[in-house]
């Protein structure tokens, strides 16, 4: 393992003004997104859609540091035969790959899951590296509800995340370690804070036990935020203040960067929260976005599966990428959204 090189990639992934496009929806998830815009989820439509994103010059060259791909996409070629990975590389962004294989029910823990995909992971990583992937992603899912999460769920998921991270580094691939605490429930921000704190502490404990080099990874956490159904919705300032406090308490400064998931926040909320956190700086690590929905909802709607809408889809994507790029420097203002509209 060459840690200097891993650190260089991790640092580039969280470069100031840039962030990561999470375009790694599994076949099931992208079908859900396409259903919402009335597009059939065929291999060709998925390719056309992602090709549209990766050919968005402004977004890709100025505001996107890396793209997380799904297995199907990393092997696909654009309509003109160029591998999609090459489109990403030639824009200056780094290709990455989701390597977990989703969640399965966790025995003895009703309502909880463990993320799977460790079997044969070393072999798969080797192939992805040869194809151009320089970072990977593994997402663990922790739900908040009555009596959950259990320490069992936190523990097995942290163990799997660390196993994955160690295998990635051995394959010269930067692991994005993503322990996502869902914002689906009716819990308040303080409960989210407490659960996320337990999850992060356990995750870093496992990373140390399994000798993962913190300098060669990126953390992808949720923010400290109110559950979607909570009657008590925290303000942008409270989310920013509590998230920064939480991360400072749990994430060692040796970690080069933190890139948030959006987790079901609206586009503008996700941008405003990141921006507000940078107003509280200086911060010990790079702090940016690794959004899926919050970057793609607008371009998906603008595109709606029609070739004549590709330019509009690219404009929508470039706008969101620019807004989040500004937020990653604390330079975003809500008036910039209205001007574009
Ligand atoms: P969202 O930003 O839509 O939560 O997706 C990010 C991601 O990669 C989840 O694993």
Please sum up the structure shown.
The chain has 341 residues and is α/β, with parallel strands linked by helices. The protein contains 14 helices and 10 strands. The chain has helices at residues 3-13, 27-36, 43-54, 57-62, 71-74, 84-91, 121-131, 151-170, 189-209, 236-250, 267-278, 293-303, 310-327, 334-340, and strands at 19-23, 64-69, 94-98, 103-105, 113-115, 135-142, 174-181, 218-219, 257-260, 286-291.
Label this structure with key terms:
341 residues, TIM Barrel, two-stranded antiparallel ribbon, 49% helix, 15% strand
Write the layout of secondary structure elements.
Elements: H1 3-13, E1 19-23, H2 27-36, H3 43-54, H4 57-62, E2 64-69, H5 71-74, H6 84-91, E3 94-98, E4 103-105, E5 113-115, H7 121-131, E6 135-142, H8 151-170, E7 174-181, H9 189-209, E8 218-219, H10 236-250, E9 257-260, H11 267-278, E10 286-291, H12 293-303, H13 310-327, H14 334-340
Parallel strand pairs: 1-2, 1-10, 2-3, 3-6, 6-7, 7-8, 8-9, 9-10
Antiparallel strand pairs: 4-5
Bound molecules: 1,3-dihydroxyacetonephosphate.
């Amino acid at each position: 393992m060459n840690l200097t090189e891993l650190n260089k990639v991790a640092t580039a992934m969280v470069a100031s003004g840039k962030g990561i496009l999470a375009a790694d929806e599994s076949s099931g998830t992208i079908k859900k997104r396409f259903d919402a815009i009335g597009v059939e989820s065929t291999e060709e439509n998925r390719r056309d859609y992602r090709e549209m994103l990766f050919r968005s010059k402004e977004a890709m060259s100025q505001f996107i540091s890396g793209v997380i791909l799904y297995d199907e996409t990393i092997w696909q070629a654009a309509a003109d035969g160029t591998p999609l990975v090459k489109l990403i590389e030639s824009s200056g962004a780094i290709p990455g790959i989701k390597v977990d294989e989703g969640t399965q029910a966790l025995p003895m823990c009703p309502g909880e899951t463990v993320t799977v995909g460790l079997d044969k992971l070393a072999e798969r990583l080797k192939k992805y590296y040869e194809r151009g992937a320089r970072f990977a992603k593994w997402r663990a899912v922790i739900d908040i509800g009555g009596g959950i999460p259990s320490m069992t769920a936190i523990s097995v998921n942290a163990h799997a995340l660390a196993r994955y991270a160690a295998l990635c580094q051995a394959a010269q691939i930067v692991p994005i370690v993503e322990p996502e605490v869902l914002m689906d429930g009716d819990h308040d921000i303080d409960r989210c804070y407490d659960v996320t704190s337990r999850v992060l502490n356990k995750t870093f404990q496992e990373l140390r036990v399994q000798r993962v080099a913190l300098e060669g990874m990126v953390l992808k956490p949720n923010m400290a935020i109110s559950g979607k159904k909570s009657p008590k919705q925290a303000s942008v300032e409270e989310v920013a203040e509590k998230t920064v406090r939480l991360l400072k308490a749990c994430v060692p400064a040796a970690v080069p960067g933190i890139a948030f998931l959006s987790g079901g926040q609206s586009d503008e909320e996700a941008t405003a929260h990141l921006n507000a956190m940078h107003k509280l700086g200086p911060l010990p690590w790079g702090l940016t976005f690794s959004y899926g929905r919050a970057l793609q909802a607008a371009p998906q709607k603008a595109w709606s599966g029609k070739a004549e809408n590709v330019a509009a889809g690219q404009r929508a994507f470039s706008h969101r990428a620019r807004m989040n790029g500004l937020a990653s420097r604390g330079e975003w203002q809500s008036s910039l959204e209205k001007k574009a509209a």
